[in-house]
Prior knowledge:
single chain, binds zinc ion, 2 domains, alpha/beta, two-stranded parallel sheet
Amino acid sequence: MTAYQAPGVFCQFGIQRENMMTQCVLLNADYSFLNMVHWKRAFCLMAKGKVEVVRDTQQTIRNSSGKEFKVPAVMRLIKLIRTIYRSRVAFTKRNVLTRDRFQCAYCGTRKEKLSIDHIIPKSRGGQTTFENCVAACKACNLKKGGRTPSEAKMYLNLKAFQPTISEFLRIKFENLGVYEVLKELGVY
Ligand SMILES: [Zn+2]
């Protein structure tokens, strides 16, 4: 197994069409999810024989000699690579909101600008970690104040967990609507 490296190949496919799907899903050889790659890079990987196409889109692209190619939706690497996707996602406010799908953990609202709630309040020794922080609307955050969920009788609708990069990307794809395709292919 080798570490993953971006191919330094120059691509001949220069013209990008309006509204075309520009990102392709790249799977590892074992069908685990790796990354999203731009279609230009996808063609480079195809040209180098590094990937096989699992599913095409209906979009085509013409190269400089006039030959048409279907833009792939999902590709799989022929050779299995070691990945960093089991690593942990860094804690940031934005990443907590993404994990919680921009929904308040207590009331489920998506409308407002969300804040971060410490499940066990900071004043009570609660830490600023993925396991102790959730997205919360301002009203819920204010209502809960310096109390624990059971003291405030406010219950979490989701689990506060430290996501791996792979789990985190899956959530991002669900938000993008790509998840269903991956599920259908047995990736998740
Ligand atoms: Zn709320």
